[in-house]
Specification:
Blueprint: H1 16-22, H2 51-60, E1 64-66, H3 92-102, E2 111-116, H4 117-133, E3 139-144, H5 173-179, E4 184-188, H6 193-205, E5 210-215, H7 221-224
Parallel strand pairs: 1-2, 2-3, 3-5, 4-5
Length: about 230
């Protein structure tokens, strides 16, 4: 194949459809069936997802939520509608810190960062270090569902599994946050909505920086890795 002759744009994102078109392969999946009259179905968090109660509570308290990259980003869309920003991996914590510094004092909405366990291990720790170093406040929610759910259910440092499925040293989030001198650290089961609401209310009212680790396994883990 003469790659130079392929009609692929020099800029932009590649997609399966674009590659098929460049190779002259018909993409029948894009042909609409006139007899098919199904309503559109937007992407949603899975039934039983432990992130749902957290976003439900954040929506009810009208928090200003800085989000991050992961399956939990779906908390931004209806009916949860609980994420206000999403830029790149690791941006949620420094975004929350920056917004707190720039916030109009007349605005009383709590500013809360939300980040997944694997994303926190990947690029979120440095944002937390920066917030502590610069004496920031606010609330950071680490959604620890014990897996990297968005990109294939592979392991990560927080659940102690390598990409090959081998057991390795598990990153202790509580010990890490305490070692970084986070003033307030607590672990909450997100499947208990009353506990979720109470934790968010208490920590958002505190003057010091707080980290809430919402820990419960992904709803799909029991299907993929039954006991």
């Amino acid at each position: 194949v003469d790659c130079e002759a392929l009609p692929i744009p020099r800029r932009g994102e590649l997609s399966p459809e674009l590659i098929k078109s460049a190779l002259g392969v018909a993409d029948e999946s894009l042909i609409e069936d006139p007899a098919c009259d199904l309503p559109p179905r937007p992407p949603l968090l899975c039934a039983g997802c432990p992130h749902r109660p957290v976003f439900y509570a954040l929506n009810k308290m009208k928090a200003l939520v800085t989000g991050d990259i992961g399956c939990y980003t779906l908390g931004a869309i209806a009916p949860l509608s609980a994420i206000d920003t999403c830029i790149d991996m690791g941006a949620s914590i420094p975004m929350a810190h920056g917004m707190a510094l720039a916030q109009n004092p007349d605005i009383t909405r709590p500013i809360i960062a939300v980040i997944g366990d694997s994303t926190f291990a990947h690029s979120g720790i440095t944002g937390l270090v920066n917030t502590i170093y610069n004496q920031g406040s606010g609330v950071v929610c680490i959604l620890d569902n014990r897996i990297t759910a968005m990109t294939g259910h592979q392991g990560n440092p927080v659940n102690g599994l390598t990409l090959g499925g081998q057991t390795t040293t598990e990153l202790d989030l509580v010990a890490l946050c305490e070692a970084l001198r986070v003033p307030r650290v607590r672990v909450v089961n997100p499947n208990n909505l009353d506990d979720v609401i109470a934790a968010l209310d208490e920590e958002s009212s505190a003057e010091e920086l707080s980290v809430i680790i919402f820990r419960a396994p992904c709803a799909l883990l029991s299907k993929q890795f039954p006991p």
